[in-house]
Amino acid sequence: MLDKFKGCLVGLACGDYLGMPVEFTFGRKDVIDFFGSEILNPVDFIEPNCARRTAGYYTDDTCMALCLADSLLECDFDTRDQFLKYKKWLFEGYNTPFGDRQFGVGDHTYKILTVLREDNLPDVLNHVESHGGNGALMRCAPVGLLYHDDIAMLKDYSIKSAIITHNNTEAAWSCVVLNTFIAYSLLGIDKADFVDRFINDHPDCPEHIKKLLLTDFQSLPAKHKMNTSGYTIHTLNVVLYSFFKAQDFREAVTEAVFMGGDADTQGAIVGALAGAYYGFESIPSNWRATLLNKEHIEEVAVNLYNKKISS
Question: pTM score, two decimals?
Answer without folding.
Answer: 0.97
